[in-house]
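We append the chain.
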Amino acid sequence: MLKVALIGSTGAVGQEFVVALDKHPWFNLTHIVSSERSAGKKYVDAIRDPQSGILKWHNREQIPEYVRDKTISKFDDINPKDFDLIFTALESDDAQIIEPKLAAHVPVISTAAAFRYENDVPILIPGINDDHTDLLKKQQEERQWKGFIAPMPNCTTTGLAITLKPLIDSFGVKSVFMTSMQALSGAGRSPGVIALDILDNVIPYIPKEEEKVQIETKKILGKYDNESKEISVNDVKVSCTCTRVPVSDGHTEVVFVETIENADPSSVKKKMMEFSDNVSIKRLPTAPREYIVVNDDPTRPQPRVDREINDGMTTVVGRLRKDSVFDNGIKYVLLTHNEKMGSAKGAVLLAELFKTKKII
């Protein structure tokens, strides 16, 4: 068992981490860390509203027993050298300061955007760009760290990159147009009047989201050069519009793809299923039984019906059909669970990949 800590344990993403690490066969979460306001409290008390006494627990699963009475530590009270790995669920401004202090001593897997766009930092999705892990050695050498920072992609990027990978490998891709319909949980959990903004509404702008998706997709799907120790970003053109909709969990995306070689819906489905069947991470503890599911029902995917398939780790594709604008065009709808595969549980899967590669 590897000894791990979690920084940022009481928020929505932190709660997903404590669920994902419950009874994990490889990782033992020994320390949970949060703000000074929560430090010294039992976990179950730290997530309780001090005025109403109501638990601010946002997960569908119950609070795991192993963490309920665990005492929350302050950041300054832990020694990074005591751990084999640290997960962080921080806002980007805090991550910018805290994560390098940790990475100087120990590997860090982060859900924040703070370091995603650095040249020596890969953005990793297990099974999609596993060879990019070699860039972590360069990061350690250049920064003189014993550890490293390995950030997860933006949750909206995750499903898009997963579904584009088999298309790029089989047909080549010139351009991608995507419109997202993103769940409320991706914006954090806001109680009360703020949440009224989304009722009977669609918000057609999410700050910085489109830029993140466009940059990250090209980097994730780029090639790693062993000689230069650099990622050359994919030259695919990516354009997107990101919107917020009144759905609790699960990001839906409508995707239009211009391929280099002709691709009909049946051949695309075949390649997606072959990729899913042969993905490199199938034997990892958190890996889904199906990495991609392609549904022939024209009413699917739907967040309420499909987001929990394989405990939220499967990307579901539907409405796969020929596009009439591009000469070589395919269009489809995808659904990915933004708080599981797109966040904490995807980070645990990445840690499992690191362990099998002997990176941790």
